[in-house]
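Final report, section 2: Outcomes. Of the targets proposed, DNA-binding protein is the one most frequently requested by collaborating groups, and we therefore present its record in full.
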Amino acid sequence: MDVLPLRLPTGADLRMALQQAAPAAAFVLAGIGSLSVLKLRLAGAADPTEWQGDFELLTLCGSLSPDGPHLHASVADAEGRVFGGHVAAGCIVRTTAEVLIAVLADWQFNRATDPATGYAELITQRLR
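The predicted structure is given below as tokens.
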């Protein structure tokens, strides 16, 4: 396992930046920072919800594959209320985001629709 520390600048789309940085197989181990636009798909919801304001990114974790990321985040709003969900495209970095990625060189990750869940679920394959 190798690690890849990233700093995403003001204005970056959190999900898109991680998708572009994604190797063949990786996990986001940690992420902190701030967001000015937050788009999360909440538990059980079909579509993401968008909020604008000042948000602290408390935790970020998930998997990265060439087929796209699967990311979860917890955030706090300006009053300190904490909530979280699936990270959607359109989460915009307010000041910075610091992310640590674990790269798994001997693995290939893909996603395929699972008939049981209806979602594109992770498929792992060891290369060596």
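The mean pLDDT is 96.
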